[in-house]
Amino acid sequence: MKSHPCLLLIGLLLPPAAWAHGEAHGAAKAAVTISIEQHPWGRQGDPKKATRTVRVTMSDAMRFDPAQLTLERGETVTFVVHNAGKLMHEFVIGTPAALQEHAELMKRHPSMEHDEPYMAHVAPGKSQRITWTFDQPGEFLAGCLVAGHWEAGMKARFHVKEPNP
Questions:
Q1: pLDDT digits over 102-142, tens only?
Q2: Where are the alpha helices (DSSP H) in 50-152?
Q3: How does strand 75-83 pair with strand 52-59?
Q4: Which pTM does this prediction carry?
Q5: Do 140 and 94 touch, CB atoms closer than 8 A?
Q6: Contact (CB, 8 A) for 73 and 113
Q7: Phi, psi (5° rounding) for residue 49?
Q8: Could you give the strand order of the β-sheet that contains 119-122, starting from the edge strand earlier in sequence?
């Protein structure tokens, strides 16, 4: 069988990855970009630098478990947020005022999409991860801002204190 010269030329001009079948074995995954945006309640954390993992369960009883957490300023926490209910739930970190404002916005726009590093919109039976660095001392919350859930008390409290000397 004789090859056509143009086909040979095209094959030589293709990048080496195009020669392989499917995805390259062991191909590197795209690097995750970590936002440097500062918020009054902290900033997105690097999962590789997390000093603690906290498993949070959300329920249709409109509660988070645990409902309170004490952290040290500078601590990076990975939250593994699991929705154990049958309803959609969220885990959104912020100040009480910012979360109240967002809850009001959610009432007016219930299908609003979320794509911030301090928010997890979790379907029933699913889990998501958020890694957050609490670099400011103070009282912060996580809340479910699905319409009616915030008002029903679906909140967790974070007390961020200065580290012990």
A1: 888 877 877 776 678 999 999 999 999 999 999 999 999 99
A2: 96-108
A3: parallel
A4: 0.77
A5: yes
A6: no
A7: -110, 10
A8: 68-72, 155-161, 138-143, 89-94, 119-122
